């Protein structure tokens, strides 16, 4: 009996191991250098075992092979990924060859039938759907509209400085990620919806809490990333929902209300929401499409920008601290 149990366990472990390494050799068979990867961990162990940010794992591979190779084959868990090392190739992919690279990791993680909030986001679409929605969305980013956004950002920068001046009287530490989320939330709400979220007041709109939950407590996004890495060929219909339903209801309601208010009280303002209303007539967009397009701008600029701001604040504080140390 015990022998049968041990044999069953050994067989199961063997099958799991075989599954985890089944994609290894994908790049070697195509004549591409494939650095050694680990079962389950792949080429970026910090995705599973967070001893450092997984981008540092990428940097280690880059530094090891940048002088000898233009690219190497890697694995995100067990999903094959090509890591480009040569700047000339990176430029070619992003500029002249960009039309051939419409698919990305996010497009394999999201089931747009479940996450309707970002169903029109080019970042999660593939093929002709990607080309069509990108063509619609790219018309929003004109020079005139960017100038309008710049003036809004200057106002938000002033609000951030005032907030820091008032909040530093006690001498306590600041949460850089929180400051970044407040800044991006305030900027995006005003730029996209024409609404001031009062992010730096004592009574902000619930946007701040929703953004924090979406940024730091999104279990769905974590699960979707793991599923995409372990089962890269899994059909979309089996992928989990990424956005919490509470976030769907909140953001969908706020964007829908902003659209209703702008229709009832038109403003001569060269901003995102006015252009979106024009696009609705031109492309016969549904209300759900409108909400999704607005959410594209807000979601894509939220977490990445706030994280960049947090790191900039950390570096600035480090430099200031070093300067004060040398002065003292």
UniProtKB/TrEMBL annotation:
One of its GO terms (molecular function) is heme binding. Its cofactor is heme. Keywords: Endoplasmic reticulum, Heme, Iron, Membrane, Metal-binding, Microsome, Monooxygenase, Oxidoreductase. It is found in: Endoplasmic reticulum membrane; Microsome membrane. InterPro entries: Cyt_P450, Cyt_P450_sf, Insect_CytP450_Detox. The keyword Membrane applies. It holds the Pfam family p450. It comes from the Eukaryota. It is a peripheral membrane protein. One of its GO terms (cellular component) is endoplasmic reticulum membrane. SUPFAM superfamilies: Cytochrome P450. May be involved in the metabolism of insect hormones and in the breakdown of synthetic insecticides. Belongs to the cytochrome P450 family. This is Uncharacterized protein. It comes from Drosophila ananassae (Fruit fly).
